[in-house]
């Protein structure tokens, strides 16, 4: 088939990879010279640990697909580094112990560790904590370089063409039933199937095709340091992540919330600490969650101060200098039971959007799922 994909983020790219691997020809449009949305403004985490029971099968399959991508495309920087959620109170330990005692804990790779075992696993963690929840199935990729690397690999197939700085304007059908996409260069692309992956851009063509999509937008703030000077062998989270990720819901979490309020800044900005070391040695730190639009065009300094304080307490020493800060926006399904909003808006025209903060984790699985659904 001839497949045209609109949107160069992780969903569009994952769908392109699934289609090319199944022998189809793909033309891929991206309105910017390079993807600039949440796909490149994230941690690059493939995050199994916090997913709900109903999401676990999909998440583990996506983890397998990321590992396969890493073997085919080493440039994405895939590494099976796992994660440690560092716990600083008995109430947080109780939440982790409850999660580690569930039936699916072995699948997730959960192990509750004493401080000495945490430091053996990740010697860079020399700060204050009372335990750590290790998740061996968590992984990471280099979000800023993964998509160009995947596209380069797809180009070698001879069945893939990427068109940057090209915005799709109209999707129509000829009298003979052929789907046509006209771009802002005046080129008309005839195709058999159109997949629209608009990311957080829910206006314009996405709205014309799908109306008001059942999605909301979420804004986050993050930052990056210079190289740490030593290896952080796992990704790191703090106890606030237990409050954010739905996989930790349960009686122990409710007790934690009742007994231990978050720090004021963390509560106001709906924060958790996630920390990933990039291949160049720098640390990516975040994040916040803002749901009420219109979003500000500038960033708030207090969350950054909070992240630095917490990270330094857990590392046991000062952070290297922060070299960049940024904000990003992603779209999220209003129905929490949906992994993604996938809708046929016309014969052979589909919209796929709204995985929320799970986009990097679930991208390859969602591409494979769409390909199976459409019998590609």
TrEMBL record:
Q: Does the keyword Phosphoprotein apply?
A: no
Cofactor(s) this protein cannot do without: FAD
* A Pfam short name: DAO
- GO MF terms, alphabetically ordered: oxidoreductase activity
The FAD dependent oxidoreductase domain covers which part of the protein?
2-373
Q: Which UniProt keywords apply?
A: Flavoprotein, Oxidoreductase
- Please tell me the species this chain comes from: Rhodococcus ruber BKS 20-38
Keyword Oxidoreductase part of the UniProt annotation: yes
Q: What is this protein called?
A: FAD-dependent oxidoreductase
By sequence similarity, the record places it as follows:
Belongs to the DadA oxidoreductase family.
Task: Quote the cellular component terms of the Gene Ontology held in the record.
Answer: cytoplasm
Identify the SUPFAM superfamilies for this entry: FAD/NAD(P)-binding domain (SSF51905)
